[in-house]
């Protein structure tokens, strides 16, 4: 029995998230449909993590067993891309260990969030970024971003991914960078993320940069004290960029 790992890229605008759901279009559902057209008889593919409706990916990871495939992995990549819709593609395919699990074996996940300032609507840029009518303070963004580094209880910034799950996470990268086009990009990496955690982190950092809360307020929230402005950054600005694994694959 061969287990395959595939790296997926998708424009999340037309998907109701990554995880299969009844009666709505999802990334998992489209991948499974394409596999069945190639003779796959499995029940479900495994995903590294769940992305919300409208969230994009360049590095989502899926795995599945495919006994009927007798060609090289490179041919599987080509065959799947011929069957997948235009907003979903396989970037890489390879055979991995039979016990590989894209979620439980992951060492870290990385996300990127895009923010840009423009007083006038920009439909194309807004497909992949959060447009703001006001300018943000980059120095303030990075001062707040540094607070999240390390191991903390992020209960104020997201929900656990399971009923009995912990809200403690370890963040190893949290920084903002300004691109030549004036766009600000937030890069964040952690061992795992709570449900909607990245969008909440971005919203709070933007709020702090515009004076709606203070850096001290954010620090207090990490300790379970005080309140922060309610809200989430829009899903369209978020992209899952990478999932890291050890060498056992």
Topology:
Layout: E1 3-10, H1 27-37, E2 46-47, E3 56-65, H2 73-83, E4 88-96, E5 106-117, H3 123-126, E6 130-132, H4 138-147, E7 150-153, E8 168-178, E9 184-190, H5 197-209, H6 215-222, E10 238-245
Helix pairs in contact: 4-5
* Largest sheet descriptor: 10 strands, mixed
How would you describe the shape? globular
Q: How many strands in all?
A: 10
Discrete helix count: 6
The CATH H-level homologous superfamily of the largest domain:
Pseudouridine synthase I, catalytic domain, C-terminal subdomain
H-E string: EHEEHEEHEHEEEHHE
Find the structural class using helix and strand composition: alpha+beta
**Spatial extent as radius of gyration:** 19 Å
Regions with pLDDT < 50 over 5+ consecutive residues?
Answer: none
How far apart, in Å, are the first and last alpha carbons?
A: 15 Å
What count of structural domains? 2
- Text of the CATH class of the largest domain: Alpha Beta
In CATH, the topology of the largest domain is named Alpha-Beta Plaits
Q: What would CATH call the architecture of the largest domain?
A: 2-Layer Sandwich
């Amino acid at each position: 029995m061969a287990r395959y790992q595939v790296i997926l890229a998708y424009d999340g605008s037309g998907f109701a998230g990554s995880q299969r759901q009844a009666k709505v279009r999802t990334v998992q559902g489209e991948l499974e449909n394409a596999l069945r057209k190639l003779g796959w008889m499995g029940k479900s593919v495994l995903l590294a993590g769940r992305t919300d409706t409208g969230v994009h990916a360049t590095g989502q990871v899926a795995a599945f067993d495919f006994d009927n495939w007798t060609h090289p992995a490179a041919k599987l990549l080509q065959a799947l891309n011929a069957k997948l819709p235009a907003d979903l593609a396989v970037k890489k395919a390879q055979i991995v260990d039979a016990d590989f699990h894209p979620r439980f074996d992951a060492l870290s996940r990385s996300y990127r969030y895009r923010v840009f300032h423009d007083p006038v609507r920009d439909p194309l840029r807004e497909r992949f970024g959060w447009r703001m009518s006001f300018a943000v303070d980059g120095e303030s963004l990075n001062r707040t971003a540094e607070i999240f580094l390390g191991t903390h209880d992020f209960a104020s910034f997201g929900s656990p991914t399971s009923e009995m799950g912990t809200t403690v996470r370890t963040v190893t990268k949290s920084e903002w960078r300004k691109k030549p086009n004036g766009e600000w990009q937030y890069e964040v990496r952690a061992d795992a993320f709570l449900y909607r955690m990245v969008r909440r982190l971005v919203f709070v950092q933007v709020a702090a940069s515009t004076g709606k809360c203070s850096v001290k307020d954010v620090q207090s929230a990490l300790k379970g004290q005080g309140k922060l402005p309610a809200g989430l950054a829009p899903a369209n600005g978020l992209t899952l960029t990478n999932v890291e694994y050890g060498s056992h694959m």
